Amino acid sequence: MFDRFVRHLVTRGVALATFGSEHLESFFCDVENRCASGTTTRLRYVKLIDRLGRHLVDVGLRDSNPAARFARPAAWPEDEPEPLFLDPAADAALRAYAQARRGDDARLCRNRAVVALLRGAGLAAAELRAARRRDIVIAGIRPQVRVPKQGARLERTVALPASWTPPIRAWQQAHTLPESALAFPAPRTDDKPINDVPLRAIVGDALDAIGFMAPDMSPRVLRKTFARRWHAAQMRIEDAIVNLVADNGRVHWALIIGPLMTQIDKGETFGRRGQGDTEVKRA
Contact at 8 Å (CB) between 65 and 57? Predict the structure, then answer.
């Protein structure tokens, strides 16, 4: 979100320290034109930029916050559903469920790989549907997924924790296709992507298998779980770096940041719970 705002400022020839309310007007107008009606995207940008403006004033880079007048009348809708994501225990259960097993048929092998990629890389359903085999690199010490540009989302590369790679490897070995082929084609085809109906069923079956029950049993739960774990891990890294800089000692890298990065790569790091977050535990 922040990158999109910065790109807008660059096209207008202004910077974070110099943009004004007229630039915000044009930016919010662009956001509204690109987003479906009834969403809170504009409101989220207002809140984000208002916090940014207040911070820039606090550190002395700006004299005023031009986003303040947009933020004053802005309020979160009271009927907006709370975000759902797996707590650490349910997340671990899902990782265990997704692991390939001897005797899995082609359908179950595919389903486990779908769950692993959605949760491990935090892909949206549309991104998984469009993924090609060449985009998923699980060989080497840094497994990763390349997500091509889609709409306003720029191309990005997402690290894939090693603990989520075995089911993906099993699917690729069982379903041999050229590197340019779709990673998850529709049943009985090789050139048409799997659609949203079976994707929802695959994720719903996986969540049901680990005892997770919620109003939303779609791929969004796995994406939000990924986002929650990533954000919590970033918070812990920032805390560790603060300690490292404060003490100015290499020992903190060995004792704090090094092991923490290893835990993150393995998908084992979970952070503290923040206010306003909702964790849905297993039934």
Answer: yes
If you write DSSP's letter for every residue of 78-107 in order, what string do you get?
TTPPPP-EE-HHHHHHHHHHHS--TT--HH
CB within 8 A of 57, min separation 6: which ones? 63, 64, 65
User: What pTM did the predictor assign?
Assistant: 0.64
Which stretches of the chain drop beneath a pLDDT of 70? Answer: 36-38, 75-81, 152, 234-283
Q: What are phi and psi of 142, to 5 degrees?
A: -125, 75
The CATH number of domain 85-219 is 1.10.490.10: no
Give the C-alpha separation, 157 to 131, whole Å.
12
Number of residues that make up the chain: 283
Please tell me what DSSP assigns to residue 256: I
Tens digit of pLDDT for each residue in 171-220?
A: 999 988 899 999 999 988 878 999 999 999 999 999 999 999 998 899 99
Query: What are the strands, taking DSSP E only, across 151-233?
Result: 156-159
Helix (H, G, I), strand (E, B) or coil at 270: coil
| Cα–Cα dist 274/276, whole Å | 6
122 Rama sector, left if φ>0, alpha if ψ -120 to 50, beta otherwise: left
80 burial via Cβ count (<10 Å: 0-12, 13-18, 19+): exposed
Tokens at residue 268, please?
């084992």
Report domain extents, the chain. 2-71, 85-219, 226-280
Dihedral angle, C-alpha 228, 232, 237, 239, nearest 10 °: 150
Question: Residue 51's closest CA among 29, 33, 27, 70?
Answer: 70
